[in-house]
Each structure stands twice: as structure tokens, then as C-alpha cells.
Amino acid sequence: MSKVVVTSAITGSVHTPSLSEYLPCTPKDIAADAVRAYEAGAAVVHIHARDPLTCRPSAKFEHFKEIADLIKAKCDVVVGFTTGGAIGMTTAERVNVVTTLKPEISSFTPGSMNFAIHGLAAKPRKWKFDWEEPYLKGTEDMVFYNTFKVIREYSEYFSKAQTKPEYEVFDIGMMNNMAVMMQSGHIKRPIYMQFVLGILGGMPSDPESIFTLLNEGRRLLGEFQWSVCAAGRNQMAMLATAMSMGGNVRVGLEDNLYLEKGVLAKSNAEPVEKVIRIAREIGREPATPGEARAILGLKGSENVGF
Fold first, then answer.
1. CB atoms inside a 10 Å sphere around CB 271
2. Domain locations in the chain?
3. Which of 82, 118, 255, 280 has the fewest beta carbons under 10 Å from its own?
């Protein structure tokens, strides 16, 4: 319990550039901010890509590859990727970063859900790019698509690449999906779950959600390793709760643009530094990348495809 794996989610696909001038957009900026997060104490960085000209979320392989290469040239942080993809992509296209770059760990969402962030467009503002407002508003009618067929196919792709799944669990039903897929042999132990709280369509960002997910997860799946990330203003309170219970944590501009009320985080290093200060106050020390690899059972940076 003494070591906590701190993951930094660098830019995500939720926030748009008009919401914060500090949101990294180009491959070079995303990579540089990932290195800063590592220097601040993060053992893992979770990578989304963006179009370098418009800052719009990108699923292009070349953007992911450039980011990965730039990070690895500077440090030995564990690099994981999103496999959320984009609407209309096939399963193979969504997991292309796994099959080609063969990372140590990547996200894997075991179920479909409403994923709504249209509330971010509720406040009138001057938008930097014309895609931002319709992008956010359009999520009122969006489903994050992860059927049982997709879960089975993802499992096969991850297994071939020897990439550890980080199961991003937004509600209890997703853990029941995992239990079903374990019975059929598609999901195997050991299991690592990231409890994602505070997204409209998933479980709320409160301590009861953590308790519920832990209790139901143990009932459905047995023992597992776990982490918590929380969107919005309750982020640090939820992470402190998770760390006090022995869990790992994720911070970053993907989940929360603010360091505290009214104060934008200027880089991903700042929330990493803050959560590590909290960790140390309750007797937890941040794991190094090497320690994180041992804790999570990762294959090592020498076995990736970048």
C-alpha cells in the first residue's frame, strides 16, 4: 500500500482549446508536457492525440507515433494510449495504436455508455475554432460504443500485442460485462481497473461511487488492482479517498483543467505535484516507472514498438 502509481492524462478528447490556453495540442507540446509530468513524479502517462493545427482530437496513427517517440527519447515513463477511437472507426482502426506500437498498457472500456460533455458548451464564450461548440453540443446524442463483440475483439488484439488492458470502468454494468467475458476466457487475470467518475452517463464523482465499485467489483471479479480518476472539481477529494483506501490515481488536464477553484493548471506537472503532496501526507509514496512496471506486471519499455 505504501507505493501509489500516479498516472497523468495529458490532453484527452473532452476539453477544447477555448477552455484553457494551457491545453497541449501539437505532438511536441503533448510530449513535452508528458515529460514534465514524469519529472514531477508520474510513473505513467495516458496519451490522446490532437490535430496540431486545430487542436481537435485526432485518431491518426502518425500523431500518436510522433508523441510516443518524443517521450521515449526523453525519459523512461510508462506510455499508454487511448483506444477510444472516433465515431465510424472499425475495431481494428481503434486499436491500431496497440497492434502497431505495442505499448505496455492502454485503455480498454468494457461496455457502451452515454458519454455527454455538452454542458461544457453551456456558458457563452468566444470560441477559437469553429469545431469546438458543435463538437461539445453533439455529445448530448452520443453513445460511446463498446459492445460484447468489440470487447472480444479488443481482448484478442491486446493479447497479441502483450499490452496490459487498463479497464476504464464508468459503472457497475461494465464490471458485469467483464465477469461474463472472464467466464468465456476472453478476459484474464490479473485485472487492473481505472474507475472513471464524474462523466455524465457514468457514476458520479463521490466517495460512495468508489465504495460501490470496489464492493461490487470484488463480488463479481474477485481480487484486482485499481485506480481512480475523477472529472471536474471533486477530483482531488476523490483521489485522496482512493489513496487512503490503497488505490492508485490519475490526474491531468484530460480530467480537470483547474488546479484549484478559479486557477487553471499551467501544465500537467502541477496536478501531479499536488496529488503527490496529498499522498505523502497520508503515508503513500509515488512509484517510479520501474516500480509501476513491477506493481502492474508490465512487459517493459524494451518490448514496445516505438
1. 28
2. 3-303
3. 280
